[in-house]
Amino acid sequence: MNLKLELQTLNDKLDKFRRKLAAAEARGDATIVLQFKKEVATVTKRIASIKGQQTRQFSQEGVALKALGFKRVLTKAEQADMGKLNKSVKGLVVVHPLTALGREMGIKDVTGFAPAKF
Question: Its domain of life (predicted)?
Fold first, then answer.
């Protein structure tokens, strides 16, 4: 299971446990409240672990991309015809600033990374 899917399922579980915890607190059922507090704590810990894994993964990808020989900001015309650009440049990797990788790398514009100048 990939990290994104696992994180999504854990967030769903956390939401479900929190709703059940609120219902148990409203009923005044102490044993169930204790059980769900324990479940919320374990799921929260697992979510933090997966987010750390994602950060490390994106950091490694960013380092690998920065190690490529050439990078530059893509023009609007190049962005509009991305298929043609990908065919003309071998090994091109395009990073958008709003993706997780783009945020991790701290880029401000759509940037292309390639082993050779393009």
Answer: Bacteria
